[in-house]
Structure formats: C-alpha cells, structure tokens
Design a protein that fits this description.
By secondary structure, this protein is of the alpha/beta class. The protein has one domain (about 1-220): Rossmann fold. It is built from 8 helices and 10 strands. It has helices spanning about 10-25, 90-105, 140-145, 165-175, 200-210, 220-235, 240-250, 265-285, and strands spanning about 1-5, 25-30, 40-45, 50-55, 55-65, 70-75, 110-120, 130, 145-150, 180-190. An 8-stranded mixed β-sheet has the order 2-5-6-1-7-10-8-9, with helices on both faces. Strands 3-4 form a two-stranded antiparallel ribbon. Strand 8, helix 3 (about 140-145) and strand 9 (about 145-150) form a beta-alpha-beta unit. The chain is globular and about 55 Å long.
C-alpha cells in the first residue's frame, strides 16, 4: 500500500500520483466522505440545491508481474479540530479504514509520504527523511540512496514527530502488525510556509519509492516541474534584500545529520531570517 494526502509543498502527493499513473493503477473504490468532512462546495442551479461536493479519498489498484500495488490518495485530511492536518477520532477511523482495505488485499508493507521542513537552500538536492515503524527495517531504509533517518537529524535527540495521517498511519499499521515506512522529501525552511508545490522534494521521494518498489519511473514529467518551480522561486529570491539573501545562501553549506559540526547558520539566524522574509512579502504589492 502506498498512501498519501495533501501536505506542505504537496511533496508526497505529487510523487505518489506520478507513481500511480506510471504503473497505470486504476480506480478501485473510495471512502465515503459523510463521516469525515464538511462539503467543500454546494451546487445550486435555478435556485435549487442540486448537489454537495466533498473531498475525495480514493483507492487505486495495479497487478504487476513483480507485486500487487494498492494506492490510496486523499484530497484532504480529516480532523476534529480546525487544523489542516489529521487529528482526533475521525483521523484514527480513516487510518483504520485504509488499513482494512490493505489487509483485505493481503498487503505486507505500507508506505506513506510527505514533506520534511529542513534548513537547506532551494538550489541543493532535497534528501529524503525516512521513518520505519520497526527496528527490523532500519537496515533497509539506510540502504536507500539519498536518505537519512529522521532520528539521526542533528538536534532531535534520536526522536522526531510526523504530523497528520502520514504519521498516524505508521503507528496504526504497527499496532495491526504491518510494516510501514514514511518517506519525506525536504523543503527549504523559508519556502514551506508558501502555498506552492515543491517538486524538487517530490522528485527525491519518487526516486526512493521507485527504488524500494523496483519500478522504473520516467523522470521527464517531474524534471519539467522542478525546472519550472526553480525558475519561479529564483524570480522571487532575486527580489529579496541582499542581506537576507546573504544569510539564506549560508544554507547551501549546512550539514545537519549527526555527527556534525555546528552549521554556518544558527537557530537565531533562522528565526530572524524568517521574520524578515515575512515582513518583506507583507510589504510587496498585493500582499495581505
């Protein structure tokens, strides 16, 4: 099972959807939305309410020569509160429904995917943070190219936290006896707050998933998206004041996987830079 929901930079969902389309997985079914979501849109025609539009959460399936692949792609995460990420009883119920389907199809492994907010520069290659739900999987995930265990990130004390259903599904899978791995593509700390996709992180995730599943995925589509994204980010980056860019350029040289020396940019630097960037964009024409 490969499962994904929208999140920061749409990193996971972009990678998983490209993988789904590459193998030609076809729609299998969906989780009915009534117990999980409010309508996103009410369709009214000629003064009469005709329909309610809800977020869609669909399963897709593909039988291949090597293995059967079950995909689950959700348009929104259920929540009992007001946050953007899954929480509460609705989220737990959905996680179990997804795994009910996985077990029905005989799945032995679950992959989830999302974003890792990291102190990196947008010109460097995104790495993939990995979190397995079993110590038995650590050797395997360490063998994946361009990955780092989330628990090995400097300053985390061997711990970490995954928000939303990507993390919840990992835990529920463990409880129900399923192996699970979460793969998270890096997005620069100064970009993650913007409502834009970050395909460079998606490409890193796609490379790891395709290797783990032994699937050859053409990279033409994601490479084109990366190029377009970099052009757009650079156009914004060049408008930043020179003193902010000087600080952000230090992120090109940050090494934060343990063991490591103190990086060229401190936590105080990061906080100040983000505040200055926020002020800058609030001054921009058309800003909120």
């Amino acid at each position: 099972l490969i499962a994904c929901w929208p999140g920061i930079g749409n990193i996971g969902i972009m990678a998983v959807d490209i993988l789904r389309r590459t193998v030609g997985a076809e729609e299998l079914g969906e989780i009915e939305p009534w117990d999980f979501f409010y309508p996103r849109k009410v369709l009214i025609r000629d003064g009469e309410l005709k329909d309610l539009e809800f977020p869609v959460n669909r399963f897709y399936f593909k039988k291949t020569e090597k293995k059967d692949l079950l995909f689950f792609i959700g348009e929104e995460q259920p929540t009992d509160g007001t946050g953007a990420y899954a929480e509460g009883t609705k989220a737990y119920k959905m996680a179990n429904l997804v795994l009910d389907m996985a077990l029905k199809f005989g799945c032995r492994r679950v992959y989830t995917s999302g974003a890792a907010v990291a102190p990196i520069h947008h010109t460097v290659r995104s790495r993939v943070w990995v979190v397995p739900n079993s110590a038995d999987l650590i050797g395997e995930v360490k063998s994946y190219e361009n990955t780092v265990l989330m628990s090995d990130i400097e300053g985390r004390g061997g711990q970490g936290n995954i928000t939303g259903l990507n993390g919840l599904l990992l835990g529920v899978a463990k409880k129900r006896g399923l192996e699970a791995i979460c793969v998270m593509g890096e997005i620069p700390i100064y970009i993650h707050g913007f409502p834009i996709p970050y395909p460079k992180g998606s490409k890193a995730v796609l490379e790891v998933l395709s290797a783990a599943l032994d699937i050859e995925v053409p990279m033409d589509e994601i490479n084109a998206l990366v190029q377009q994204s970099e052009t757009e980010i650079e156009s914004v980056y060049e408008r930043l004041p020179s003193e902010i860019k000087e600080q952000l350029d230090k992120l090109k040289y940050v090494t934060y996987a343990r063991p490591s020396e103190p990086g060229p940019i401190t936590e105080e630097d990061k906080k100040r830079i983000l505040q200055e960037i926020d002020k800058f964009f609030k001054k921009e024409p058309g800003g909120d």
